[in-house]
Write a structure and sequence with these properties.
alpha+beta; Cytochrome p450; four-stranded mixed beta sheet; three-stranded antiparallel beta sheet; 17 helices; binds protoporphyrin IX containing FE
Length: about 475
């Protein structure tokens, strides 16, 4: 019955022809670049709403803002698509990203009040310290073209570990154990994602990759659990640090307690959700500044005006970075680090009078497509931070700008990300003039691993400012 139900509803929606039984299973295979290109073509050929069949699985591609709003706000489409758990479940467990409704509700109710503005303000010093170190590392590359990505991922991993778990892992200083585990775990995750044969548990289970993955996740779990246990002792003996991480605060909180296992899942979820998204966004911002020297000058002027040439950035300064904040917003419009979000439809979800997303289907929400659509954005591939001037923001078509998703499952780290990225920009532009060979946004061909990135890397060159 279920398959007939899916089939009946899917007929009303356009989509590419598929093979009998297999459907479009082989239409979206290839390297991360090829898959990104194919998915983009699919969203462009079938704007608003389209369908594909992956064997018995019905997947809708959605990019119409009104539909995005319905899907983001409905409890019927609240649960994540099964691939989140299949590929990420082993290290994300029941953390916010993957949790289903009852667990999610309980965890989010405990975490949100703790992750408040006062706590975020206390993180700014940590952001500034690590971005300062980043500047020193970047200085070693002055005068020649290089790829920003590794320096930024090391830096954001240090920041995330210190703010979220209260531990200095020293990745920027060359302590690479955690960096290597996470890097390889994520690599195996997307190697698995991109090979159809590895989607089948019974096939993947026999591979060397699976064994390696289990070993690495075991190491990661042990690391996080030991840390939680150490922190528990600190809390029970009253020897807690002055500046609290999310982990310290969770353990100290008098609200309902999470178990060690639950906290471990949340810590690993936060590390994964925070570090790579912030790193690639930071890289894209610097590439955009390199591509647009006048915008870079305006950012520098703003920074000098607020901080003076040598002043230290403090949390009170952050709201004054109005132009920089527009640069960040425009960057995540063009390059949302998570370009797609996938959900599972739990019960029939009406989109319009004669249009229903049937129970059992999956939806892939094309955030990047709506954010680059000519229908909602004038000259969409032009990098123009002034789209986010207060008087222009009012004109943005509702739900055509959703880099942090929206509705109850919206990103919990949005403010954290904006504060950390502002600190990064202010630190880097004061020291370096940034340049890049990329001439236009259109020229930056993208691929997705876990997050998007350019097919040919984040290539920039730096010059020391006088
Ligand atoms: C530019 C940076 C970031 C962007 C664009 C971004 C975007 C997103 C998006 C689109 C989602 C929804 C994912 C989905 O429904 O599948 C999400 C969820 C989430 N993000 Fe972020 N994120 C960013 C940074 C961060 C940071 C810095 C943190 C933590 C400090 C964080 C923590 C989370 C968590 C925990 C969730 C799951 C929320 C839930 O389901 O309740 N993110 N993010």
């Amino acid at each position: 019955w279920n398959r007939r139900h899916l089939y009946r509803h899917s007929r009303k929606v356009p989509g590419p022809h598929g093979l009998p039984l297999l459907g479009n299973l082989f239409d979206f295979t290839g390297t991360p670049s090829e898959i990104y290109d194919k998915t983009t073509k699919y969203f462009e050929t079938y704007p608003n709403l389209a369908k594909v069949w992956f064997g018995p699985k019905l997947v809708y591609g959605v990019s119409k803002p009104e539909y995005l709003e319905k899907i983001f706000s409905s409890l019927t489409s609240f649960d994540k698509e099964e691939s989140y758990r299949k590929f990420g479940g082993a290290f994300l467990g029941d953390g916010l990203l993957t949790a289903s409704l009852p667990t999610w509700k309980r965890h989010r109710k405990i975490i949100l009040p703790i992750f408040n503005q006062k706590v975020l303000n206390s993180f700014v010093e940590i952001f500034a310290k690590h971005f300062q170190f980043l500047n020193d590392e970047m200085e070693k590359h002055v005068g020649r073209e290089f790829d920003l990505y590794e320096l930024l991922t090391r830096c954001t991993l240090d920041i995330t570990c210190e703010t979220i778990m209260g531990v200095e892992v020293g990745t920027q200083k060359g302590e690479l154990f955690l960096f290597k585990w996470l890097d390889r775990i994520l690599e195996i995750t997307y190697l698995r994602q991109y090979s159809i044969w590895y989607h089948f548990d019974f096939m993947f289970k026999w591979t060397q990759l699976h064994k390696e993955n289990l070993r690495l996740i075991g190491e990661l779990n042990r690391f996080t659990e030991e840390l939680i246990n150490k922190k528990r002792v600190q809390v029970s003996t009253g020897c807690t640090p002055n500046r609290k991480s999310l982990l310290d605060l969770l353990l100290e909180s008098s609200a309902e307690k999470l178990t060690t296992d639950e906290i471990k899942d949340e810590m690993q979820t936060f590390i994964i959700a925070a570090s790579d998204t912030t790193a690639v966004t930071a890289c894209f911002i610097l590439v955009m500044l390199g591509m647009h020297p006048q915008i870079q000058n305006r950012v520098l002027e703003e920074t000098n005006l607020i901080l003076g040439p040598d002043g230290r950035l403090e949390y009170q300064d952050i709201p004054r970075f109005e132009y920089t904040s527009r640069v960040i917003k425009e960057t995540v419009r063009l390059f949302p680090p998570g370009p797609y979000v996938a959900r599972h439809i739990e019960a029939d979800l009406p989109l319009e009078e004669n249009l229903v997303l049937p129970k059992g289907a999956s939806v892939l929400l094309g955030l990047i497509h709506v954010q680059r659509s000519t229908e909602f954005w004038k000259d969409p591939l032009k990098f123009d931070p002034d789209r986010f001037l207060p008087k222009e923001v009012e004109k943005i078509y509702p739900h055509s700008y959703v880099p942090f998703a929206s509705g109850p499952r919206t990103c919990v780290g949005k403010k954290y990300a904006l504060m950390s990225l502002t600190t990064m920009v202010a630190t880097v532009v004061r020291k370096f003039k940034i340049g890049t060979e990329y001439k236009s946004v259109d020229e930056i061909k993208l691929k997705t691993n876990m997050v998007i990135r350019p097919q040919t890397g984040f290539k920039v060159w730096l010059e020391l400012r006088k």
